[in-house]
Amino acid sequence: MGAREANFDGLIGPTHNYGGLSQGNLASSRHAGLISSPRGAALQGLEKMAAMHAAGLWQGILPPQQRPYLPALHQMGFTGSDAQIFAAAWEKAPRLMRNLMSASSMWAANAATISPSADCADGKLHFTPANLSTMLHRSIEHEQTGRSLSRAFPFAAVHRALPEQSVFADEGAANHVRLCGARGDQGVELLVYGRDGYDSARAGYPARQTVQASRAIARSHGLDPARTVFALQSDAAIDAGAFHNDVVCVGAMQTLFYHELAFADTEVMKTDIRAAAKGVFEPIFVEVASAEVPMADAIKAYLFNSMLVQMPGEDRLTLIAPLETQENVATRQFCDVLTAGNGPIGTVKFVDVRQSMQNGGGPACLRLRVTLTEAEWADVHDGNRFTPALHRDLKAWVNTHYRESLAPDDIRDPAIMTESFAALDALTKIMDLGDDFYPFQRG
Questions:
Q1: Of 443, 406, 428, nearest to 36 (Cα)?
Q2: What is the 3-state secondary structure (H, E, C) of the chain?
Q3: Higher-confidence residue: 28 or 81?
């Protein structure tokens, strides 16, 4: 049966702010304390989705999560009405509240690891929501992520997140690449990890993904061991600011596009992928040397945190890169050389997602890639499938409910909670998510 790749983008939430919460994410740290534009961020995200839909790609939407996340405050001993809890938590635990106000679920690449039905022993599409246990502000996402994925994909196997413990630290599809000859055929799944969870914590920035988490997901999804590759991320990449592998590597179809310092042992990675793909397809490796693009430029411009897609009717792949890649001299010159040849990547298109970029996430961070058969795409919940009508309704919703600007201290305003909850309540009706989708709706 024919299959295609769909991109499900995270809709940016109304509390989008520059809190600088993500250790090891240089862009997040660099822009901490600046004034954000929740309205501008959400509209930028919607325009990227609209462009992908107009190009003929399957495009989906994942809703933002509830912020502030009151269930965590209940669990930590705060009681009373929502307003009383909000005020008391800001007074007694302001650092905790900054984490519980984060709109980081916008980066859907971290939502889950996905294995398409062609790769799984039971012939079903599988999702494992990421526990994101390394960072407090992200560790609160997985329960609502599971609810959201179950709503969007009622036919799929949606697993529970792995234990919220350092041995099983899991960051989702940002450390996962699927290569294949044809979308509907069995592919090779590459799972990249930064450390052994049983070893002591490394020096430098956190290595967020463990090999134990990657192997557990491969087992629970029923992946063929012969078609599954595990690769170690390099310390050099992590300490340069590649907090996820998708900051230095992206792949699509047969092609893996990566920086030469992305992996601890590049030759082993390539050998393992060739062995896993043998008899199915011939992998293509596009390696970018440090001499062409220094690691610092690759990370600052997010060259690899781009979407690598197969456009309808195109033989070569298209790289959907942020404007920052065009503005950086080294990465712009590399893109010119890349597309001038006859390699697998023929076009680079630039999109404006600057609000997301300043918070540490590029075009690839904003989307969760899901390979679906035509029958599976038809069974996706209608409210999660992008259409021009839904685009129009969501733009009106953003312009009605979102603030134009938000300074870091503005998130202490009690009105931001009521505004956010009102916006999300309205969204559940637009996307037909049900009147019990969010915790505040369930009481």
A1: 406
A2: CCEEEEEEEECCCCCCCCCCCCCCCHHHHHCCCCCECHHHHHHHHHHHHHHHHHCCCEEEEECCCCCCCHHHHHHCCCCCCHHHHHHHHHHHCHHHHHHHCCCHHHCHHHCEEEECHHHECCCCCEEEECCCCCCHHHHCCHHHHHHHHHHHCCCCEECCCCCCCHHHCCCHHHHEEEECCCCCCCCEEEEEECECCCCCCCCCCCCCCEHHHHHHHHHHCCECHHHEEEEEECHHHHHHCCCCHHHCEEEECCEEEEECCCECCHHHHHHHHHHHHCCCCCCEEEEECCCCCCHHHHHHHCCCCCEEECCCCCCCEEEEEEHHHHHCHHHHHHHHHHHHCCCCEEEEEEECCHHHHHCCCCCCCCEEEEEEEHHHHHHCCHHHECCHHHHHHHHHHHHHHCCCCECHHHHHCHHHHHHHHHHHHHHHHHCCCCCCCCHHHHC
A3: 81
Q: Residues 244, 335, 376, 401: which is the catalytic one?
A: 244
Specify which residues 39 forms β-bridges with.
none
Is residue 428 included in any domain, yes or no? yes
What's the pLDDT score for residue 34?
83
pTM of the predicted model as reported, rounded to 2 decimal places: 0.95
Name the catalytic one among 171, 189, 324, 376: 171
- pLDDT score at 31: 59
Residue 365 among the catalytic residues: yes
Active-site choice (53, 335, 365, 376): 365
Q: Which residue range forms the structural domain that includes residue 43?
A: 3-67+102-442
Question: Is 80 exceeded by the pLDDT of residue 33?
Answer: no
How is residue 41 written in tokens?
A: 């961020």
Distance (Å, whole) CA 11 – CA 106:
6
pLDDT tens per residue, range 156-200: 999 999 999 999 999 999 999 999 999 999 999 999 999 999 997
Q: Answer yes or no: 171 catalytic.
A: yes
**What pLDDT is stored for residue 195 in this prediction?**
95
Q: What is the pLDDT of residues 137-162, one digit of tens each?
A: 999 999 999 999 999 999 999 999 99
5 is catalytic: no
Write the pLDDT tens digit of every residue in 76-100.
999 999 999 999 999 999 999 999 9
Confidence at residue 206, expressed as pLDDT on a 0 to 100 scale: 87
CATH number of the domain within which 379 lies: 3.75.10.20
184 in a domain, yes or no?
Answer: yes
Residue 88 falls inside a structural domain: no
Task: Count up the domains in the chain and report the number.
Answer: 1
Residue 92 in any domain: the answer is: no
Q: What is the pLDDT of residue 203?
A: 79
